[in-house]
Design brief:
Layout (H helix, E strand, L loop, with lengths): L3 H7 L2 H16 L7 H12 L20 E10 L1 H6 L4 H9 L12 E5 L1 E2 L3 H5 L2 E4 L11 E5 L14 E7 L6 E4 L8 E5 L8 E5 L2 E6 L6
Helix pairs in contact: 2-3
Length: about 220
């Protein structure tokens, strides 16, 4: 694993502008999330986007391929950042390998979201990246529905996480972080409509989340 200090020395000014924008985005989220710890965690997410991940954050590991999951947007990349930032080169290559053309990449085509709140390793380690189709726009704080990707194998190049729709704009609505105690970590997203739409609880080694299995009824 590459040390944080070494990583910092290699980063471009454009990258640190991206980090600053990520930190600023936390202020737009709920007050309980806008903490120094959460902002520091975002820096960690960006620093280790490529350095420590054995599987691209564009490929979901630990959840079934094709299942739907929810995540909260914390960063949206511009087309220029996708194409030119060295820290996003691997993500760019992964998008191309999945069959997405350069011409389809626009401002907002690549985004980063968290599945756990607030602070701690899992907010960083389990954050996911995803592709946003041209007919969909996502913003900071949106709760988005993602179709989970597939890790590449010797037989195919895998599939990337893809946003299917925005389920909630901002903090007001039927979706929330559970349990409601803001002091806790490993809080997961839950929405009142989940059971009726066929979503089920999915336990992971260090937490849980809710998914709708592939092929489930909307």
């Amino acid at each position: 694993m590459i040390g944080t200090a070494a990583l910092r020395s290699r980063r471009s000014g454009s990258f640190w502008k991206l980090v600053a924008r990520a930190k600023a985005s936390m202020v737009l989220l709920s007050a309980e999330a806008a903490t120094q710890a959460a902002a520091a965690a975002l820096t960690g997410i960006l620093l280790f986007l490529t350095a420590c991940a054995t599987t691209s954050r564009l490929h979901s590991a630990g959840v079934p391929s094709g299942s739907l999951r929810l995540a909260q947007v914390i960063l949206v990349a511009t087309r220029q950042e996708i194409l030119s930032l060295s820290e996003l080169q691997e993500s760019h290559r992964t998008l191309l390998a999945s069959g997405i053309n350069d011409s389809e990449l626009r401002d907002g085509s690549l985004a980063l979201a968290r599945v756990y709140c607030c602070g701690g390793h899992s907010e960083v380690g389990d954050a996911v990246m995803f592709y946003v189709p041209r007919d969909l726009d996502v913003g900071i704080g949106d709760i988005v529905e993602l179709r989970s990707g597939r890790v590449p194998s010797s037989k195919d190049s895998g599939a990337v996480n893809v946003a299917t729709r925005v389920r909630q704009r901002g903090p007001d609505g039927s979706c929330r972080w559970e349990p409601p105690d803001a002091r806790l970590r490993l809080r997961f997203l839950y929405c009142d409509w989940m059971p009726a739409e066929g979503w089920v609880e999915h336990k992971q080694p260090f937490g849980k989340t809710w998914l709708r299995p592939a092929g489930g009824q909307p």
